[in-house]
Amino acid sequence: MVSGIHTNDRINVVPVKFSNNSFLKKIINELNRRFHSDISPLAMDLDIGETFSEERAQYFSTQIIASFSSLTSDVSGKVLLITEVDLFVPVLTFVFGEAQLNGKHSIVSVCRLHEEFYSGISDDDLLFQRTMKEVLHELGHCFGLIHCKDWDCVMHSSQGIEEVDIKGNFYCKTCARSVIGLK
Ligand SMILES: [Zn+2]
Ligand SMILES: [Zn+2]
Questions:
Q1: Active-site residue, from 30, 54, 55, 138
Q2: What stretch of H or E contains 163?
Q3: What whole-number distance in Å separates Cα of residue 67 and Cα of residue 182?
Q4: Tell me, which fold does domain 5-180 have in CATH?
Q5: pLDDT by residue for the chain (183 residues), tens digit each?
Q6: Could you tell me the pTM of the whole model?
Q7: For tag attachment on the chain, is the N or C end more exposed, with fewer CB atoms within 10 Å?
Q8: Would you call 138 a catalytic residue per the annotation?
Q9: Domain boundaries, the chain
């Protein structure tokens, strides 16, 4: 029997260089359907300019999380950052997101989840599906889940957009069982 990780923790959704409020609301509504926790938008004013790499024209996700960590010590629960900017970590060309395993913070970028990025064609529904998968994936890490071999599971890792599209948008039974509080 897997020991359960409780998700009664509030999930604070923080926009970072993200201006699409109706999209943010849609994400929050969907998270409300998926978790028993309180899901709340949280406005935090923080300049992430220092995390920008001129050379790569991307923002360093680990540094963004570190900058927010100093501001969120009084915030209870999890902190999910949502951004439009393109993210990287030094060993990879880009990342869709990053999370602290069993920790408080995670970040998801929608930059490379836009279909325009690949084909030039805009698809709002596809963007939402992709964003939810990456949001659930990164939150899963915050709730202690590691990568899952099951392609139907949202905790499967995704190196590219094809893999985001192939994987499922729910936690598999094994992953779900280890996190108490999922709907
Ligand atoms: Zn992951
Ligand atoms: Zn799984």
A1: 138
A2: helix 161-166
A3: 29
A4: Collagenase (Catalytic Domain) (3.40.390)
A5: 344 566 678 999 999 999 999 999 999 999 999 888 899 999 998 999 999 999 999 999 999 999 999 899 999 999 999 999 999 999 999 999 999 999 999 999 999 999 999 999 999 999 999 999 999 999 999 999 999 999 999 999 999 999 999 999 999 999 998 887 676
A6: 0.94
A7: N
A8: yes
A9: 5-180
